[in-house]
Amino acid sequence: MNDRYVIEDRARNTFSLSREALVSPAVLEKERRAIFDTCWIYVGHASELAQPGDFRTRYVAGRPVIFCRDKAGTAHALLNTCRHRGAIVCRERQGNARQFMCMYHGWTYETDGTLKTVPGPEAYGTAFDKRNFALVSVPRLEHYRDFYFACFDRAAPPLADYLAGAKEYIDLVVDQSPSGRMEIIAGVQEYDVKANWKLLVENSVDDYHLPSVHTTWLNYMKNAGVNVRPPKEEGLLLPSKGWGKDLGNGHLTTDNVNFRGRPVARWISIYGEDAKPDIAAIRRELVARLGEERAARIADTNRNLIVFPNLALNDGSSVTVRTFFPTAPDRMHVTAWCLGPTEETPAQRARRLDAFLTFYGPGGFATPDDVAALEAVQQGLAAWREVGWSDMSRGMAKPGDAQLNTDEGHMRVFWRRWSELMDRAG
Amino acid sequence: MSGRRNAASATREEVEEFLYREAALLDAWQLDDWLALTTADCGYYVPPNDKPDADHRSTLFTVADDHARLVERVKRLKDPSAHAEYPPSRTRRVITNVRIAGSDGETIEVAANFVVYRFRRGGDRREFVGHYRYKLRRENGALRIAERRAILDGEELGALGAVSFIL
Questions:
Q1: Does B3 have pLDDT greater than 90?
Q2: pLDDT given at position A2
Q3: Can you name the residues that pair with B83 across neighbouring β-strands?
Q4: Whose CA is closest to B61, among A187, A200, A250, A147?
Q5: What is the pLDDT of residue B4?
Q6: What SS3 state is found at A282?
Q7: Which of A20, A125, A393, A403 could cross-link A407 (Cys pair, CB 3.0–4.6 Å)?
Q8: What is the mean pLDDT of residues B24-31?
């Protein structure tokens, strides 16, 4: 591959990224069309719409969207703009509605988007037909195991095909629930990072940075009695071995032997002695339902998955669903939730939330340092005209299936796909 | 008021003096001295912006530290490897509208408004606006923090980015 932004030389094992791709307004504008308007973009989770009439408003790829469930129970992603003059029809963050009434002139819509009433209908001509003025849905809305995605390209392949190898890794998350039903837990984290959005893609799966960026988190784990010493195997920088994997279509994941504990189901000292029998019981349920091998696969590994382009499912100390959109070349808006099995007891739920905060989120022991790292990168990129290229060649001399989580093979997967889509857009 | 001083009584003046001293310690990054103001079972909470009244056992918070984790948080913040706060931010806390909201014989509940300005290099100025809810107790006659809840008013954290210092 050799284009304007990504230069890869497989003979010499070099992989260079143009820093212009991280600072340029023109690149961002092109990304909006070439990436965000053609790929499947995460909207929300089925559990956020538990009852008919439930809704959540949010931005998806720059558009205001009402993610809602209609009276008949069907989920929709309606563009949140009145067909009359454009005002946002639903201004609340979340709730349950029988209808959506625009505050400007009172046009009122059903929860499936149908235009129900307009005040003073007699003033319109005979050609005016309310059926032509329903709220417009996103062109495509599909879900995989309760994760809903929208696509603004009508001709896109079905979501299930698009997800390719990422499905297997979503399954490893969802199968933690005995009924296969996970839920988004209340309490959303919404914060800005003063960095290009692609830097968070990299950071979400970049385990090379762990020892340097997350020293204080590793110390915290050590102080709590967790073994954080790397095993005696050449080339390992982390307390356990892990891989970086290509899942097709630009999706990628880390796949690591767990050392940091898992609510489902691997006890560490941070959970407290009291939690031991409960974690053992969760594990027994996994084994009974899925067999020893599959149970170990779920409970003894942790995985940070990127669904191209902007969804991270971090199944580590807890499960984070994290999506992010650029608001400027050097700024993104991040939204993050905690995901857990619907069957969890109050004690299990409390443990999951507590484990989440050991690492993740804007008050966690690790995420703020990630943000600091990304912002430091963005500041450095201001010299892009003189220092034009970043290096992402780590691990290239090894075969593809030998890429460690501390190599950069999985990040190259993202950039190759990004480059391909940008090229395709001309 | 009766002659014998109730363990759970305090004047607003005493509470204000206590909160101002706490704010000064935090602004000066004297975190060990600040930690000494907390009880051994102290909890420190920053609820999520969208659910300010929620319970941290069933809702994802921004911060929900028990005392053990609070000790670790202070260790972390003193370490130059806590990159989000190195070099340490300059902060200035303005504490106002201090009210004694109640007491149950052992615990004094205090409410106060805050504005915390946080400065970093490059013109980075962030304003954290909200209110505190404290549970104070007396230990050997001195007021101590048994619970500290910093509740932000913003609909989302947004441009504030993170709560990487002790709010």
A1: no
A2: 55
A3: none
A4: A187
A5: 44
A6: helix
A7: A403
A8: 98
> For position A4, what pLDDT does the model report?
87
- Give the gap in angstroms from C-alpha A64 to the nearest C-alpha of chain B: 17
Amino acid, res. A94: Q
Taking alpha carbons only, the member of A73, A50, A301 closest to residue A171 is A301
What's the pLDDT at B78?
Answer: 98
- Find out whether B34 and B26 touch, Cβ atoms under 8 Å: yes
Tally the residues of chain A.
426
- If contacts are CB pairs under 8 Å, which of residues 353-412 in chain A contact chain B? 353-354, 356-358, 361-363, 365, 367-369, 371-373, 376, 379
Residues 6+ apart with CB under 8 A from A219: B75, B76, B79
Q: Which residues of A355-385 are buried (b: 16+ CB within 10 A; e: fewer)?
A: bbbbbbbbbbbbbbbbbbbbbebbeebeebe
The C-alpha angle with vertex A71 and arms to A67 and A77, in degrees rounded to 5, equals 20
What tens digit of pLDDT does each residue of B4-15 get?
Answer: 455 568 999 999
Cα–Cα dist B32/B47, whole Å? 24
- What percent of chain B is modeled with pLDDT above 90? 92
**Is 0.85 exceeded by the ipTM?**
yes
How near does any CA of chain A get to the CA of B54, in Å?
A: 8
Asked if A193 reaches chain B (Cβ–Cβ under 8 Å), the answer is yes
* Secondary structure E strands in B66-155: 90-103, 108-120, 124-139, 142-152
3-class secondary structure, B7: coil
Residue B160, helix vs strand vs coil:
coil
Element holding A191 (H helix, E strand) = strand A189-193
Say which of A223, A346, A362 has its CB closest to residue B157. A362
Neighbours of A225 (CB within 10 A): 9
A197-211 pLDDT per residue, tens: 999 999 999 999 999
Residue A148 near residue A77 (C-beta atoms within 8 A): yes
Burial label, A215 (beta-carbon count in 10 A; 0-12, 13-18, 19+):
middle
Q: Taking a C-beta distance cutoff of 8 angstroms, is the pair A310, A197 a contact?
A: yes
Quickly state the pLDDT bin for A231 (edges 50, 70, 90).
confident
Q: Note the pLDDT of residue A307.
A: 98
- Per-residue pLDDT for B2 more than 90? no
Render pLDDT for B65-104 as a digit per residue (tens, 0 to 9): 999 999 999 999 999 999 999 999 999 999 999 999 999 8
